[in-house]
Amino acid sequence: MIDAMLYAALTLFGVAIVITLYRIVVGPSLPDRIIALDMIGVNLITAIAIISVILGTKAFLDVILILGILAFISTIAFSKYIERGVIIDRKRDD
Amino acid sequence: MAGTNNLILRTATSLISFLLLGFGVYAFFAGHNSPGGGFIGGLMTSGAILLLYMSYGMKTVNQMLPINFKTMIPVGLLTAVLTSAGSFLFDVPFLSHTFGYFYLPIFGEVELATAMLFDLGVYLTVVGVVMTIILTITDDQ
Q1: pLDDT higher for B141 or B82?
Q2: B125: Cβ–Cβ under 8 A, 6 or more apart, which residues?
Q3: Which DSSP string do the residues of A40-61 spell out, in sequence order?
Q4: How far is A1 from chain B (nearest CA, A)?
C-alpha cells in the first residue's frame, strides 16, 4: 500500500518535471526558464527523498542538501547575470 | 542599472554561507563512515566562498578572506604527498595508513585515522583549484 503511494507520488513528480520542461522549451523570456530550472531542482529534491524512502536508506540525505544548495547558488548566479551582465562584481557598489 | 540594492541577498548570504561552510566541514569529517569526503567537502566550501563573492563583490571578499587560492593547491598536494611518504618512517610501503582510538577531552573516545590527513590534502587542492578557475574566468575581460 505505502509502496504504491510512493510510486504514485514519484510518477506525479515526473509529470511535474515534464510540465516544467515545457516551460523551459517554449518560455518566452530568460527569467521564465530560470524559474523553471529552479523548480526542476526542487522537484528533483523531493523525488530523491521519495526514492530514499523506497530504498530504505539514509545515504541520500546529503544529496538533498547539496542539491538544494546548488539550485540556490545557480539561481543567484543566473539572476546576477540578468541584472548586471557580470556574476562577480569588481567592487562593492554602494 | 542605477541604485540596485542587494539587501536581501546580502542578509541571506551571511546566514547561508555560514551554513554552507559548516556543511562542507561536516562532509569532510563524515567521509570516513558515511557519504562525503574531501572532494565534496571542498566543493561545498568553494560554493560558500563563491556565494560570498557573488553577493559582496571581488574587492570586499579579497579584504575579508586574504587567501591566495593558487598557493592552496601546492599546499594541499604537499600535505597528501607528505602523509603518504610518512609511512616510510615506519618501514611500511608507500600510502600505508593506520588508525587508532584516542581519548579527547570533549568528544570522548574518537577513532583518528591518518587517511584523514590525506583527505585534508584533497580538500585543500579542490578548494584551491575551483576558486582559481572561477576567479581567473572572472578577471578575464
Answers
A1: B82
A2: B42, B72, B73, B76, B77, B80
A3: HHHHHHHHHHHHHHHHT-STTH
A4: 31
CB B33 within 8 A of CB A55: no
**Which long-range CB contacts under 8 A does B5-10 form with residues at least 24 apart?**
B5/A94, B6/B55, B9/A76, B9/B55, B10/B55, B10/B56
Average pLDDT score over residue span A26-33: 90
Q: Are B112 and B28 in contact (CB under 8 A)?
A: no
Q: Average pLDDT, whole number, for chain B?
A: 86
Nearest-Cα residue of chain B relative to residue A82: B1
**Is residue B82 pLDDT above 80, yes or no?**
yes
Place of cell 541577498: B9
Residue B125 has pLDDT above 70, yes or no: yes
pTM: 0.85
Question: The C-alpha cell of B6 is what?
Answer: 542587494
pLDDT of A86 > 90? The answer is no
Beta bridge partners of B101: B111
Q: Do A73 and B55 make contact, defined as CB atoms within 8 angstroms?
A: no
Q: Are B52 and B62 in contact (CB under 8 A)?
A: no
Q: Which residues pair with B103 in a beta bridge?
A: B109
The H or E element spanning position B52 is helix B38-56
Test the B interface: residue of A88, A90, A93, A94 with most B CBs within 10 Å: A88
What's the confidence (pLDDT) of residue A33? 93
